[in-house]
Amino acid sequence: MKKCLKFQVRSMLKVHLTLGFFVIVYLISLSRWLKDFQTRQLDLYSIDDIQQLLAKLQFLSGPTLGVTGNLTSHADLHFKTSLLKEDCHRAPVTNIVYIRTHKTGSTTLCNIINRYGYLRNLSFMLDENFRNGRNFYMNISLAFQRNTLLRPLRTSVQDGSTRPLYNMTTLHTQYDRNVIAKFMVPNARYITSLRDPATQFESAFAHYKLHHVFGKEKHKLISKPIEDSIAEWLKKPKFYLDKLKRTAKLRDSEEQWLHLYARNGQINDLGFEAKHHGDLKRVSEYIDSLDKEFDLVLITEYFDESLLILKKQFCWEVEDILYISENQRLNEAKTSAISQSLRDSIRKWNSADFQLYQHFNRTLWQKIKKYGPQFKEDLSNFRKRLKDVLHNCTKGQVTTGRKFFRRTVYTKKRNLPDYCIMLVKTKDQIVLKIREKQLGNSINYN
Ligand SMILES: *[C@@H]1O[C@H](CO)[C@@H](O)[C@H](O)[C@H]1NC(C)=O
Ligand SMILES: *[C@@H]1O[C@H](CO)[C@@H](O)[C@H](O)[C@H]1NC(C)=O
Ligand SMILES: *[C@@H]1O[C@H](CO)[C@@H](O)[C@H](O)[C@H]1NC(C)=O
Ligand SMILES: *[C@@H]1O[C@H](CO)[C@@H](O)[C@H](O)[C@H]1NC(C)=O
Ligand SMILES: *[C@@H]1O[C@H](CO)[C@@H](O)[C@H](O)[C@H]1NC(C)=O
Ligand SMILES: *[C@@H]1O[C@H](CO)[C@@H](O)[C@H](O)[C@H]1NC(C)=O
């Protein structure tokens, strides 16, 4: 009898434990889903539910993202400038294609250009249904064929049969001059940004979790620092790359693109096919053609310097290039632990990217030299302005995320001065506002 009771208690305990387990698993998945919702869902709109999503974003972006007031304020449309005008006698450049390379810190530059275009009512190439490229590329021709490109501002449905012409493009699309040029205002300038492959590869490796390809080795390595995973990859890089390609074929998801970021991801983003990456002569020739076709290549390691060059080349004002970084990984989460020899091996594995990087690092510094002795002072003033922006628009930084995803984000002030309002917006918020404007345009005419 006693034994039977004991048995009953034990089996009831088992049932409860099992139930408890499933409840916990359920709660974890639910919280993951909710977390993903903010980052993922916001990229997937159609005309039908745009209003609904707008309402959701307003709700989501309230206190957590630090945006005060509603999404369309007076100050958004009339960007007040309180600083000296740049002494530039040409008209500013307003038509820009920014080819975004992955994991080069492109979000900040993207925000700068999006903000510039938004405030001046410029039209952006955007797709109404699809995510506008994140891990993968948006196919512009396909979007046009399917009639899913948002119409430029001040155009009507009747113009629908002709090709739309845009002022700006900041989406993740693989560089293909012939296709992009067809959809851009003819005198558009082309820019991109590059980063030393030693750090860009590390960032891509962490972001795309390439260590998953190790399979059963995975659990052994996952708890170790990223440099150990990279060292493991570099022991048999071709083997792991092939494995990544094979597993990619089985998946009908973004993961099928992962292998593109496992070697020479930057030159691939710029349209140079992976099968030619080993051919040094072709790489050189391709770099030469990019040099002719691109008006400016920014270098992540010298971002502020690059922005000053952009400002001068495009006749912009200093307000136009101010920024607050959205997502900065902390230095200790970055490459400090990567030894010089590992650095060299990474550059060797990504040799086409390294060649590309060195070339455009050189051309940037040539431009800086040409800028003249004023450069140093301009840079120091610009950095002072950036500090003021942080001081005036944010309450300071907080650290978030775990391990190699540790990063700083800024908490934003309430009751922001007007000039901060656009500066504190996240990428998703700015893109949403651009969408809203271009969709509003469509709705008016329908
Ligand atoms: C948005 O803000 C403006 C100015 O602050 C205000 O006039 C307007 O009523 C607000 N709109 C909504 C929908 O809250
Ligand atoms: C942009 O468009 C809005 C709405 O039509 C208008 O009020 C504003 O003056 C325009 N801004 C510029 C810089 O053209
Ligand atoms: C993009 O779509 C066009 C039209 O359907 C197709 O011809 C082209 O091959 C596609 N490009 C890529 C890179 O998939
Ligand atoms: C923006 O693009 C349109 C074509 O859609 C063009 O007519 C207009 O001149 C461009 N605006 C600027 C400021 O470059
Ligand atoms: C980039 O150029 C700068 C200035 O010439 C130089 O100090 C730096 O070493 C270069 N970086 C690489 C990785 O070549
Ligand atoms: C920003 O703050 C600084 C002090 O850090 C102040 O001197 C400056 O006037 C402020 N700038 C603007 C545009 O409000």
From TrEMBL:
Membrane topology qualifier: Single-pass type II membrane protein
Keyword Transmembrane: yes
Stored InterPro entries: Gal-3-0_sulfotransfrase (IPR009729), P-loop_NTPase (IPR027417)
GO BP term, example: glycolipid biosynthetic process
UniProt protein name: Galactosylceramide sulfotransferase
GO MF: galactosylceramide sulfotransferase activity
Transmembrane segments: 12-34
Top-level taxon of origin: Eukaryota
PANTHER family, per the entry: GALACTOSE-3-O-SULFOTRANSFERASE, GALACTOSYLCERAMIDE SULFOTRANSFERASE-LIKE
Species this chain originates from: Holothuria leucospilota
Gene Ontology CC entries for this record: Golgi membrane
